[in-house]
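<backbone_tokenisation>
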Amino acid sequence: MVYAAMNALEFDPKLCSIRQVGKVKGVADRMNAYYFNVLLEFRFRFITRLSKTWKPKSPERVGHVNIYINKDGYRRNNRRDNQRLRFPVLQYDRRHMPFNGPFLSFMPRIPIFVDRYTKQTLIFSPTGGVYIIPPLINFYGKMYSVAELIASGYASLVSSGVPPIAPINMIPFFLPQPLIGRDIPAINHLTGGFKGGLRTSLGSFSISKPYKTVNNIEEINETEEDDDDDNRYRYEPVLNNNYKRSSKAPNTKKPTNEGKTKKCQPSTPKHHIPHWLTTSSELSDPNESITFFLVLKQDPIALQKLEKIFWKITDPNNDEYQNWLTRPAIDKILTLDNRILNAVKHWFTEHSFTSVKLIGTDVFQIKTTVQHLSNIFSIKFYRYKHSKTGKTFHRAHERFCFPGEIGQYIDFWLGINDFLISHRNSVDPNRMHFNVKDDQDPTNVATVVKSILVPQFILTYYNIPNVRKTDLDSQVSQGALEFLGQFYSENDLKLYSQLVNIPFKPLKPNHILGINNQSDPGIETMLDIELMFGINPLADTWYLNYNTMNMSGENFYTTIFTLNQVDDVPQVLSISYGDPESLVCTQVTDCAEEVLDADRRYITRTNIEFMKLTMRGISIFVSSGDDGVNSFLSNCTNKVFYPDYPASSPFITSVGGTTLVNAKYETFADQPPACTELSSTFKCVSDGDEIAVSVDDPTFTRFPSGGGFSDFAPQPSYQKQAVDHYFRDERYYTDKTSDFYPPSSMYKRYGRAFPDVSAFGVRIFMVQDSVNLAVGGTSASSPLWASIVSILNSHSIKITGKTLGFLNPLLYQMAKECPNCLKDITVGNNKCTSTVCTSQCKGFQAACGWDPVTGLGSPNVGNILNLIIFPLLLLIYHSYSLYNDSPAITQRKIYLNFTELTSDLREYFSNPNANLTEKLFPWIYYSPNNRTVNDFKGEKNSKGIVICTGNEHFGVALVAIKALEVVENELPIEVIYSTPSDLSQENQDILRKHYSNIRLIDLSTMSFNDNYLKLRGWEIKPYAVLASQFEQVLLMDADVLFFEKPSLLFQHDLYNQTGSLFFYDRPNITKGHINWVESFSIQSNRSYPQRTQESGVVLIDKSRLFSGLLAICKLNDYHERHQITYEHLYGDKDTWWIGLHMMNISYSFVPTLTAGIGKIGKKKKQTILCGHLLHYNEEKTLLWWNGGILKSRSESKKDLLNIEAWNEEGQWRIGIYSCLTNHQQTPKKFTFRQQQLLNSYHQITKEVFHI
């Protein structure tokens, strides 16, 4: 009766919209509204009583959001016509969203939905949250959802009124202050949403937007969220940075105020004026020239396209790796609509600007006079002078803005009232001297010399090839970008070359870009140039400064932007300057007096310029700073850290600093004159132990290496795993104390983490202004890495004809695959600053793996070369490609036609030969231990269990291993992983110490050449079976738990008949699957399985199915799986039976369908069972399930699943868990023995994860 009444009301739009009785006209309407509300509340209470397990879900955050209402829809362009309303908002984690639907969708492809019953709007942010906004109630009591208002053009999240054209990142719009008031709806703690809507005095809206009903929004958005993870770093939208192509011409109507503008951008406070500018109280001469830049908003769709290309061409595992773009190709993608450009030009013409130049695609450079600008904007200019270069600047102190006709297209402007970054210099020779006691008299502390690092020592310590002895494989270039009047001196470089005994090679005139004064060499410039020259003297070294194209504006944006306008720039670039992100700009307001984050906006645009530069194949290195996580302005009383920019950019490689302890000063080969002729002043270091530079390290280097987390840029996916490892609970591996990490409130854990790598940052020998110095700072670390990469580039260019470009994805992959390529620095911290060190100073500690002090560590260049050359060779092989110069490879076949693959496999097993082995199985042919194919057949008559695991799933693997003991397993176990970094040494030690019956196998060092395979996921499983020393293998996933002894499966009649035993998954085999398999299958009498396969447990007898197993492996080979197999299949699952089918080999499936195991619940009066997948045999004996005891397979979410029952297959609903509805069968309880096993597994899981 209750539900019948509710259903009758739910479909009455009028009643659904009535929530505030007092605003409704008519007694009948008020009565209907009253009973509707009563029934709505009763419905939830009724459901609550029916389901004792139901619990209301509380939002993660409560706040508000500004919604701009325009009663005329799209017809107005002036943002001042929009009325701002503050709506309360609730933020939920996507997996705890309280509504179950049905939902209405007004905007296809944009995840904004409306709850059909309450008209509350749900915005699914790409960052993972769900934001719930109540409806708007007008003066007459009619209710409108915010979503339908946005879709109809009546509402917007931005004051300009621009509608969204892509998923909305809600982080910039969410304001954390909750709203309280008479018209503000309260939170309904019963339903998880709001009670009613926001009451307003607005009139009616004409809504005619069509909508689509969506029933299963949860599943749709889980898929979208997973896809976002693969897209790595996404730009965070900036307020008012919305651009949309319009079919209408831009508004070019002449402003009514005759060019006068309202003052809306504040002046820079005097304490923000950089220290290198001097000022007077005099106004600027009206006739003085002034240049400013107008930066237009970019098309977000074009940016998304550009970023998508970026991640493809910088991913070492992508077939488009190193397909660098040209400058015109990048500009073509970002080209703005001509109507927008013409509208801006029209405004300039109307206001008599004569020198207007479009640079690139979206920046105007305007040259005019002080008087002209003063008259147009009614502002006054004052003179500022650069104390180093003598250059004069003119800046205004008042606020102003451009009129709406062009203001709608402007992102920001430079050169009028801004004082951008001061680019502090990292080098300080006075604090970097290292004192060493005299060897003859160790007690004589009065006799001191300065220890130095010379290029010859650095080459040896970092295993860098000496290019003067080996020559470069290709001609390469390297350069240093300088600021602050730091000039280059050829005389200093010549003197340096003599003292380090390296043949002098001056910079070419066309490689000195920007203004230069050789009579005033800068210590930063000479350190950069000399160190790069000392490591790679055969490269063409460049000097560049901010004035590369004679464009004014000493800031990162205009400098990197102008470099993007130059065709010929060095292949590797080093930058040793920066400032805290929060001090890059000042806070500004737009014309609606809304505060905008200028730092974020400026940094976002600068990051785009860095991305554009790296897309041309240019590697950019930036020093991480010399003040730890704090600022050079900090006294350690700050409540938050100050990440350094551009070291925090996701599109550069950030370099931290290291030092040496236990230094030795022995004579070494090729000692230069700096070590012999200057011995009374300097001592050359010959060896030592490398640690992070820290204020409190034994050598007292007096500065901490910069590092931390960006406040603006989100964490790119290439480093997420490494950063997660730093923060993971390592109770099994280390003894991290509670104060190991600084307070989480001081930094953004999920921001871009830096540095990426590190290198020496102290005691570097150099010459400046004819004076010999020993200096340091991360300013030395960055050019050191840059010169190393210029050497690596020479090899890359020889092989592929292309540079390495943006290195970070390769570096983080390298850290996992080649632990000896980067030396892990585990000692040191970055708590203090270069000037302050007190007990109040907070910071991070160096640790195993990546850390925010030294990143991934320092380089072993010889090992890096060995690692990267081989994959680069693979990139140039298509079909039968030969590379005759390589002793390691002669042939590499990539099968893009599986008919040919099937034919070659069958030919191989009828007539094995070396050519076919090399062609089909190069990962065996070039295996590390020179093994042959037949070596993988296993020990005769042996049986055992194989578990694949790495660090990510080590916890659930431990549970599975312990559970096997509970179920009285008597089979031996092999734990197999892909590379040494896949399963850490600590984890290996745990297994060896506690489980004597477990054998560990590293596929990359004991079995296969991983340079071909790159085994990182599902695909490892067939190779694990092949590499196993067992002849008969039971392969189980790390999260599988058994109800019976696993050995019983070997006794199954079907296994004895065919030598294989497979289990079904839920989805049916589609006609598309069958057509694809038939397209390459040679005549076969086998029928096809009715369902897709579940590969959580697989049994294979290699003595009977060896050829088929190799076919399965081939389907999961690197190129085959990425280009063909995984385009048709979900991972490795169906490759097991398809591989056997290819070889015309019989196989067996247990004929029972998939069951469910988990917790009983209710949904719409139906009994459901939610949890994991269960498998049983023909006698309905429960065998095993995958998913374990945890609710989620992610070890970071340690919620336990309360397993109450199991049930046979019915109707599946796949979301966070698998939920099963079976109208024919009620859920079944467990036997006493089964319940005992579940209790034991539950206890084991709690012990392993310390729950």
Summary: The chain has a mean pLDDT of 80. The longest helix spans residues 27-50. The radius of gyration is 34 Å. Residues 799 and 872 are 7 Å apart (CA to CA).
